[in-house]
# Entry
Amino acid sequence: MNAPLVDTFARIHDNLRISVTDRCNIRCFYCMPEDNVEYVAREEILSFEEIERFVRVAVSLGVTKLRLTGGEPLVRKDLPVLIRKLATLPGIKDLALTTNGVLLARQAQALYDAGLRRLNVHLDTLDRERFRRITRRDDFEKVMEGLDVAQRLGFGPIKINAVAVKNLVEPDIVPLVRFGRERGIEVRFIEFMPLDAQGLWSRENVLSAGEIIETLSREISPLIEIPDRDPRAPATEYRFADGIGTVGFIASVTRPFCLNCNRIRLTSDGKLRYCLFAIEETDVKGLLRGGAPDEEIAATIRSTVQKKWIGHEINTGKFVAPPRPMYAIGG
# Structure
């Protein structure tokens, strides 16, 4: 293997997030506009063969962990074909998928048969009407069915991701976590980030990890931070003092973890990004489609990592939101 992917701040990168589509079948208000969504032309989306080749090169540079995202990845036709390709690559130690769960019940068996085991399902609420308000779709029962089917098939670990928007999700915090404790599913709260397509974000709309921890400790059981966790993982995990279950927090706003970041991102249209909030991105689709040798692609990956900044600076006056929203970058 080549030397590892190390940036100028000595961070080693072994985690690649791959967006397989920018399309989505729901319209969460903090991510996408309800109408007139601008998508990348289909011919500009990387093929499975192009993704597989890029991953092979990235693996030669030390990447061992893959996460497939979107948009909503399950709207990509024949996704199990790609999963089978990636799951069998030598050097891949971890393969996971993030989904909104709407199509999960229908596709879970094929995903499992292709080699997928780890799932993150996005779910902000257990209240059907609030789900409809957030997503602008009436698909709550489909998501719940998807979770049922995935657990029955043996997927694990399954985690639930919930975006923490202030003055909206407070009634959902305790019910979601109780549901997770009953099901053996870790709920992870993600602080609302300035990545929406409509410019709705403000610091005042962020429900902080600290506030959620206080609520859960009071309403369920005191939370104790889990020691000796992977410092490069985006989520800080806590266990309940009563011994039942864990909960995670991705506190990008109030507790940035940039100094431990080990992730790079490939967008569905073939742009390589060193940070979710990056302003710049590097085109690799042109290399993949232009006959560039693996060595040139590897050099491009390495140079992109070398350009990585120290952090996103959300909490300073220097912060500039990326020109693309979350659904176009890849979650």
Q: What stands out?
A: The domain at 5-329 is CATH 3.20.20.70 (TIM Barrel). The chain is about 30% helix and 20% strand. Residues 267 and 329 are 6 Å apart (CA to CA).
